[in-house]
Amino acid sequence: MLTGYAFAADIQLQNLRCEMLFNPQGIDVTAPRLSWQLTGSGRNIQQTAYEILVASSAAKLAANQGDLWTSGKVSSNESIMVAYKGKALKSGTACYWKVKVYTNNGVSSWSAPAKWSVGLLNAADWKAKWIGYEKGFPWDSIAKFSRLSARYFRKEFTSAAKVKRATAYISGLGHYELYLNGKYIGNEVLTQMPTDYNKSVQYSTYDVTADVKQGKNAIANVLGNGRYFTMRPIYKPKKVKEFGFPKMLLQLDVEYEDGHHQLVISDQTWRMTADGPIRTNNEYDGEEYDATKELPGWNKIGFNDTKWLKPQLTPVPTGKLVAQMSEPIKVMQTLKPQKLAELKPGTWIMDMGQNMTGWIKLKVKGKRGDKVTLRFAETLEKDGSLYTANLRDAKVTDTYALKGGAEETWHPVFVFHGFRYVEITGYPGKLKESDFVGEVVYDALATIGEFETSNATINQVYKNTWWGVAGNYKGMPIDCPQRNERMPWLGDRATGSLGESFIFDNQKLYAKWLNDIEEAQTPEGAIPDVAPAYWNYYSDNMTWPGTYILIADMLYKQYGDVRPIEKHYPSMKKWLTYMQTKYMKDYILTKDKYGDWCVPPESPELIHAKDSSRTTNGQLIATAYYHRMLFLMKRFAKMLGKEDDAKAYSALSLKIADAFNTKFYNTQTQQYDNGTVTANLLPLYFDITPVNNRKAVFNNIVKRITTIDNNHIATGVIGTQWLMRGLTEYGRPDLAYRIATNKDYPSWGYMAERGATTIWELWNGDTANPSMNSGNHVMLLGDLIVWYYQNLAAIKAGINQPGFKQVIMKPIMTNGLDFVKASYKTPYGIVKSEWKKDKDFTWNITIPANATALISIPAKSVDGITEGGKKAAEAEGLKFVKMDGDYAVYEAGSGEYKFKSVF
């Protein structure tokens, strides 16, 4: 991020960025997209034109020499995703850029400069070799539960002249830690983004100019196992994918002032050992560190590595090398223990006060060989010991063996844990809370949303959501961080990704995940339930793979990003054709796998309901979802100019709707199939239900919720994705609010009342069978967070002006909700919405520059509305549109507004 300067007419440019919010090193796109934001104190500031300069050096840019691209003055209001149109970019190019903006309120000066660099675009640019060691060592165990030690690599080289620029390119499978002259390079952790390494392998780029010294240098790297080497396939070879032993590819390009280059590459001139302190590292089982095996100075010059081995040239991964374009994983914050209690002599239980994802960093002083063991869990047994039954066969245990002497500090580096409680054994001396800190680890995504209401339950559920979502971002969205799963299930993030986008800037993460999904597609067109396909689950259903299309739609709506639709449209079309050809009969989809997964069961110990009145027909779900996918694909086709496709999708939709209503709609009961909320909600919300039947179908939804379900939620993963918006849009926001604020079972509030600090996997997660009751899942959130922001806070992207170029603002009014205060950083800037109802309705709104809003104010008439103390009709930047029931609708330009109305 770069903060800009003040300009004429009090206009400012800020947050200049290219493709991503962190400094983009080594991108591998040849037409990067440039974005900027405007701010100013006036109202209705609109960009009318822009001018971009891109230069090959900071000096040239400062001299206004755009030797790579001079756009000239371009008449356009575009300020996000503006494609670079300059000279062809070459591998390793550093690009410096700035922008000048013309508005209806003046012209800016040039913005502060920003920079991006180009990675290695061609396979021929890589001179390095893949190196590693293709077997275990005597102290390793290649078995069901792997014990594979980390591999340490080093090489010394000489830099003979003054360095102008030095760039390191590295891929380390599965994780790596890179050092140069003893300094850790970068500030991320768990480096190397997870992919299906048979399809793609990511590399990272580092500017190490300041780290290469004239004279002798040492470059070093540690390899951990990550997702590359897990060993679980040994006992489930048909289910779990395995890739091989850890390996690395490294290329250091040193450019000197005289123009010549020196390459330091990974090859057999390096030295390696696995007889170091990290004795084993497995994401499920933990990390063992023996400080007595440390190698002092191993990553600095002068270390004696004569007894180390020569690495092997390893088989080259079949996956294509691609640049990492999403944010890295980092330690994002720290937590202090809230309680420390001795369970029995020598065994302590530490409570972090929050279910978190990451690890414990400890301080300890003791004798050489003393061993501290840490075990992790989300909850406790009644006797105060760890509850680990729900972890399945994950051992989730870290151990640290002391080297002895002075105080030692340690944390694992190649694993993470999901936990609130830690069992500590073997700790020498007196145990103190100050000896421990929890480091919270997740993708370095900015938190861009804030949300608060007058209702404490909603606020706690929102807080629990933040922790649950953050903890399950690990280079891909995983389902849980604690048991032997941690898999990127598609169904968990369908509508959930949209809700998450209001809290975190998840654009790059989900764009990367769409690539993972496409890479997992079979030649026939099938899309798996888990992608990357670490588990071989191709069950051919509509709901889980449908996430592929839903997320592409989310990225367009929330970020104005059409590129994922353009890129993935052929694969999406291929999947729909595959499902139609293989499973559609008389326009009904005959295949489903999961149903409405995890509806509230009838008995507290059950995971899934066995009562057929609670479950929804799988063919109904699959057919409704196929219809919904066609609706989205029709819109995509029109955006891309594929009119024939759009017509075909439209025609097929009509046939499916007719077949659906014929098969599932009961004209006597005026409901679908067995009348579950999901059975009625999907066709209603997906516009399958004929207009004349919609009121009756909705009334049946309301009747079911208010009578049979006692005003509580009765949907699972599928129905909950559309429930809150469905109830609200059909006139019952009060019922949605009741469901959102319930504190008894089943509800989100029930989880919080029972002490949850994240979101459970099951509505009855405190009583269900431990084989499936994770305390940190987000799949049951459905559209709750979407509803929080779009309906309670009234912050929604305009359908025809995506990325919040237009903001749709219409707050729901329901008894019991007295105020909502929210903000959201859109691609154009921050939108704020703070309303309060008492005798009157007051609403403070902020709309960013170069955006507009359609604002619906609760009011009996326009005569009762003021803005800034004046009648709304006299307010600058406002235009009355119409009365819409109990709302007065206005168009508004950018700026800050203070409304008051009688409603």
From TrEMBL:
Residue span, Alpha-L-rhamnosidase six-hairpin glycosidase domain: 448-792
UniProt keyword DNA-binding present: yes
Name this protein carries in UniProt: alpha-L-rhamnosidase
Domain Alpha-L-rhamnosidase C-terminal: residue ranges: 801-870
Span of domain Bacterial alpha-L-rhamnosidase N-terminal: 162-333
Limits of the Alpha-L-rhamnosidase concanavalin-like domain: 342-442
Top EC category: hydrolase
SUPFAM superfamilies: Six-hairpin glycosidases
Entry-linked InterPro entries: 6-hairpin_glycosidase_sf (IPR008928), 6hp_glycosidase-like_sf (IPR012341), Alpha_rhamnosid (IPR016007), Bac_rhamnosid6H (IPR035396), Bac_rhamnosid_C (IPR035398), Bac_rhamnosid_N (IPR013737), Ig-like_fold (IPR013783), Primosome_PriB/ssb (IPR000424)
GO aspect biological process, one term: carbohydrate metabolic process
EC number: 3.2.1.40
GO terms assigned for molecular function: alpha-L-rhamnosidase activity; single-stranded DNA binding
Chemical reaction(s) catalysed: Hydrolysis of terminal non-reducing alpha-L-rhamnose residues in alpha-L-rhamnosides
Keyword Iron-sulfur attributed: no
Domain of life of the native organism: Bacteria
Source organism phylogeny: Bacteria, Pseudomonadati, Bacteroidota, Sphingobacteriia, Sphingobacteriales
Keywords for this protein: DNA-binding, Hydrolase
